[in-house]
C-alpha cells in the first residue's frame, strides 16, 4: 500500500518502524518495505542528492523541526504530521523514489547515530507512532505546522478562500503567549525598506509616496494577508502578507508597524505562518497530559488517524 504527500515543509514516513529503528540505532542505512521494491527518499542537499530510507528521514527531519526537550507526546504528534507529509507527497509523485528538500538534514549526512543520545527522543517518537498518519475523509491532510501562534491559529477557508482544507480552522492558543519568542521586534532602515519595496512594485514612485501610502489588510486572527500601496487613492502595488514578512525576515505576518523619520519598526507576535499545529501549543497540551492523538484532533478539526500496515 503506497500512498504519499506534498513537501511544503518536507517530511517523513511509515513502514516497519521497529525494524528500521533498530537499523538506525545500529548506524545502518537500508530498508525493505513489505517485501516490495525498496522505497527511498531522495533529499536535495546543497551539494547534491542524498538517498536514505524513509525512517531515517523521519527521525532526522523531526530533529530539525522540534526541540528535543519537548514532551514525547508533542514529538509524536509532530512525527505523525511529518509522516503525513511524506505520504501525501508520494501520493502526488508516485514511484519508488520520493524527491524532497533536504533542508535541516545537513549535520546527519555520514553521521553514525548508533550512540547519539540526542537522536533517541526523535527515534522513539517515530517508533511509537509506527505507520500512523493523519487523514480527513480518508485522504492524508495538508499537515501544516509552525512554531508559535499569536494566540490563535488561522482559518484556511477564510484566508485562502477555499474549502479544500476544512480541518485548518482557527482555535485558541492562549498558552503561546507565554513563549519566550512570542514578542519580537525587527527594525529596518527607511533606505533599505524603500529599496526592497521598489524592487517589487517599481521605482517610478517617490520615497514619500511609498512611505506614506502603504496599507495592511489583516485576517480575523491578526495576521497580515495583504500589503497594498496607494498613490492618490489608487492602488499601485500589492504583496501577499507572507511574501512581505519573508522580504524583511519577520518571524510571522502578525505584526504592527511604527514609522520614524529614518526607519520602520515591526512589532511581531508569534513565529511562523499560523496554520495548523502550533508546536509550542502542542507541547503545552502534552505537559498538561494530552496524548499525541488528542493534540492532533485539537489542531486539525474532524481528522482521524490512519495506519499503513
Please, could you describe this protein's structure?
The model is unreliable at 1-36 (pLDDT under 50). The protein is built from ten helices and 14 strands. The chain starts with 16 loop residues before the first helix and ends with a strand. It is α+β, with helices and mostly antiparallel strands. The relative contact order is 0.17.
List keywords for this structure.
10 helices; 309 residues; single chain; disordered N terminus; alpha+beta; globular
Task: Give the CA-based shape.
Answer: globular
H/E element order: HEEHHEHEEEHEHHEEEHEEEHHE
Question: What percentage of residues falls in helices of 4 or more residues?
Answer: 25-40%
Query: What is the first-to-last residue Cα distance?
Result: 8 Å
**Continuous helix count:** 10
Number of strands: 14
Give the topology, please:
Blueprint: H1 17-25, E1 40-45, E2 48-52, H2 54-65, H3 72-93, E3 97-101, H4 120-127, E4 132-136, E5 139-140, E6 145-146, H5 156-160, E7 183-189, H6 190-201, H7 207-212, E8 214-218, E9 224-231, E10 234-240, H8 241-247, E11 255-259, E12 263-269, E13 277-278, H9 279-287, H10 292-299, E14 304-307
Parallel strand pairs: 1-3, 6-13
Antiparallel strand pairs: 1-2, 4-5, 4-14, 7-12, 8-9, 9-10, 11-12
Helix pairs in contact: 1-4, 2-3, 2-4, 3-4, 3-9, 3-10
